[in-house]
Amino acid sequence: ELERLAEALKEIDKSLEEKQNENISVELLKNKRMYSIYETDLKEKNTVNLFDSKDCISGEFVFLYPPGIPLVVPGEVITEELLEQIKVYMEANMNISGLKDNSNKTIEVVK
């Protein structure tokens, strides 16, 4: 009986999470490119807190996965709008990936 109850609660939780994410639209921003990915790869980088990286040039990819949409690529300027968008996705438990820091707290930026 307890196993059936646990499974039912998991299903309810999963369906609520899916419905919560349905209300969030994925908006693609046109980020300003400062360097090509290749040029960025050759530059020195610092690691900074993700939400303190406004106006920095990204040194790495940030994806929304699934479906694997790049939110920012190396060489693009990190804007306040982008950081707000990432925060909304994180608060909705959507998967942000691509950062070397698996906790998604820091990002590499060009010095």
Automatic annotation (TrEMBL):
Coiled coil: 2-32
InterPro entries in the record: Orn_Lys_Arg_decarboxylase-I, Prn/Lys/Arg_de-COase_C, Prn/Lys/Arg_de-COase_C_sf
Stretches assigned to the Orn/Lys/Arg decarboxylase C-terminal domain: 42-96
Keyword Coiled coil: yes
Annotated Pfam families: OKR_DC_1_C
Cofactors, names only: pyridoxal 5'-phosphate
Keyword vocabulary terms for this entry: Coiled coil, Pyridoxal phosphate
UniProt KW Coiled coil keyword: yes
One annotated GO molecular function: catalytic activity
PANTHER family registered for this protein in UniProt: ARGININE DECARBOXYLASE (PTHR43277)
Protein name: Lysine decarboxylase
